[in-house]
Amino acid sequence: MTAEVSSQTEQEGARLARIVMAVDLTDRMSRSRARQTVDQFGEGGISATRSRMLGKQLRSLAWADAKNSKAMADMQRLAVKVRQLGLPKSGRGQKGIVGRLFGFSKKKLDRLNASREELEAMVASLSGSAESLRQSEVALDGFEADIRAERDQITRDIALADAFESALVAAVNEARANADLSDVVRFAESEVLFYLEQHRGALQALNAVNQQAALSLSILRETNDALLQNMRLVTFATRHALDVATMLRRPHEVSGDDRDGATDAQAGMEALQDSLRELAQALDRHDAWRTSSAARREDALLELQGISERASRDGDYA
After folding, report:
1. What is the torsional sign of CA 145, 148, 151, 154?
2. Is 205 in contact with 318 (CB distance < 8 Å)?
3. What is the secondary structure of 19-86 as a DSSP string?
4. How far apart are CA 279 and CA 35, in angstroms?
5. What was the pLDDT predicted at 49?
6. pLDDT for res 151
7. If we measure between CA atoms, which residue out of 281, 283, 272, 309 comes closest to residue 91?
8. With bands split at pLDDT 50, 70 and 90, how would you rate the model's confidence at 11?
9. pLDDT in tens, 19-53
10. Which residues make Cβ contacts (< 8 Å) with residue 243, sequence separation at least 6?
11. Which of 126, 129, 256, 312 has its Cα between 20 and 30 A from that of 156?
12. Buried b vs exposed e over 72-83: b needs ≥16 C-beta within 10 Å?
């Protein structure tokens, strides 16, 4: 908080304290105005910030999480398909170039090409899921903006409540020092200061919830970013494997006497095996990441949903 803002806050706190100490308890309007100085930190203000922070968040979170779940499901389907194909990780154990082409590796190559359309469809779905996941980040951006606005508003409210309390306590102490035991002093102590302390505590609790929401949101963003990176690696590796397999679609045209063709075929098969190895490694890394991050993401999502549901139901953030 800048010095200028701090000075303005202190001035506003002093103004509110003067309103309370100048109250005419016999006048309904005057008394109502004095009560409003403290009520602005209570349920009305909290309800307003709750609306800003949580009004649309459940829908946003549900939509964003559906995109994440779809992307995870697409990755899982591709991993299952790759394992079903039993694609080779190397060409060891085959006898010569022709053996690698027409023996074990040829069967794997045929199986890969036979599943080309299915794999291409999976990759297309994966790309679409990645784009949807990127778009869902917009929903999280809105949530993050709400949290920042909420944090700033709460910080201002707490600072003003502190300044108000400080000025009012000083005024009450001065009155007591002057042997002023009027109803106004008792009103300031028993109604204004008492409820101000309660309302400030509610604001501090809301601030703690805001910080927890920000932490949970950062976990969701972190897992989304990691998932997108995994999807990019797997998509690239799958497409590269299919591109190489296209060049090896007609291995029967290569003969043992055609040294140039055999050399090209060997290079192509090695390139295919390298791309399949990269694909397998990318899928393995994703599976290990999914296992380690799933619990953290689920906990973060449940925390945010719990906050939203409790506040929407009964206004209780605890």
Report:
1. negative
2. yes
3. HHHT--TT-HHHHHHHHHHHHTTTHHHHHHHHHHHHTTHHHHHHHHHHHHHHHHHHHHHHHHHHHHHT
4. 68
5. 53
6. 83
7. 272
8. very high
9. 999 888 888 888 888 888 888 876 555 555 554 55
10. none
11. 312
12. bebbeebbeebe
Q: At what angle do helices 57-85 and 43-54 cross, to 10 degrees?
A: 30
Q: Which of the 8 DSSP states describes residue 252?
A: G
- Which ranges of the chain would DSSP assign to H, the alpha helix? 3-21, 28-39, 43-54, 57-85, 96-102, 104-114, 116-177, 183-187, 194-247, 259-314
pTM summary value:
0.68
Q: Which two tokens stand for residue 92?
A: 């060891």
CA-closest candidate to residue 127, choices 202, 203, 74 = 74
- Dist. CA 116–CA 233, nearest whole Å: 19
**In the predicted model, what is the mean pLDDT of residues 146-171?**
88
Task: State the residue for tokens 């409210």.
Answer: 157
In the three-class reduction of DSSP (H, G, I as helix; E, B as strand; rest coil), residue 90 is classed as coil
In this structure, are residues 216 and 305 in contact, taking their beta carbons and an 8 Å threshold? no
Greatest Cα-to-Cα distance within the chain, rounded to the nearest angstrom: 116
Q: Is 1 exposed, middle or buried (0-12, 13-18, 19+ CB in 10 A)?
A: exposed
